[in-house]
Amino acid sequence: MKVAIIMGSDSDLPVLEPAIATLAEFGVGAEVTVASAHRTPEKVREFVATAAAGGAGVFIAAAGAAAHLPGVVASFTTLPVIGVPVNSTSLGGMDALLSIAQMPPGIPVATMAINGAKNAALFAVQVLATADPALREKLAEHRRAMAAEVEKKAAKIAATLGR
Q1: Do 39 and 51 belong to one domain?
Q2: Residue 65: what are its φ and ψ, rounded to 5°?
Q3: Which of 44, 114, 134, 143 could form a disulfide with 35 if both were Cys (CB 3.0 to 4.6 A apart)?
Q4: 30 pairs with which residues across the strands?
């Protein structure tokens, strides 16, 4: 399975690069495109349909400002959609966060933190791992590696303080 990533503008790519890299670390393919919920809604609809037919199991949709893209994607599919609000306005991304989080009943979108693309990728991997034991083990190893890194930092601090 793969993850389909759609962003409202090419300027969102730097925010999404950690998601693309994280998916690659887990061996999960990503199909990536730019399409606008307002300016190219038919392209959005077509991308959702072809990505789902092509094996996508989860969508990550990133958008700033009014941030309608994740909701529009969710309206075209029953697959999970993860929204990433992008900090692209003077409101610091709060407008996008609220636009994505406040979906109407019946069309849910999982909402990450502002610019939280890495967590979006990890959440997508978790969703895919519900049907893939090997992916679940990769997630468990990732968690163990994070814990080991924290312990390494704690030991360094303890050594620095002479404890």
Answers
A1: yes
A2: 55, -125
A3: 44
A4: 3
Residues in the chain: 163
- Could you tell me if 138 and 124 lie in one domain? no
List C-alpha distances in Å: 66 to 91, 92, 145, 154.
Answer: 11, 12, 37, 42
- Same-domain check for residues 61 and 97: yes
Domain interval for residue 44: 2-131
Predicted pLDDT at 92: 95
The amino acid that residue 59 corresponds to is: F
Number of domains composing the chain: 2
Report yes or no on whether pTM surpasses 0.85.
Answer: yes
* Closest to 118 (Cα-Cα) out of 11, 7, 28, 18: 18
- How far apart CA 41 and CA 108 sit, in angstroms, is 19
CATH number of the domain bearing residue 76 = 3.40.50.1970
Whether residue 51 is found in the same domain as residue 79: yes
What mean pLDDT do residues 24-41 have? 97
Instruction: Report the distance separating Cα 79 and Cα 73, nearest Å.
Output: 10
For 118-156, how does the pLDDT look when each residue is reduced to its tens digit (9 = 90+)? 999 999 999 999 999 999 999 999 999 999 999 999 999
At residue 66 the predicted structure's pLDDT band, cuts being 50, 70 and 90, is: confident
Q: How many CB atoms lie within 10 A of CB 134?
A: 9
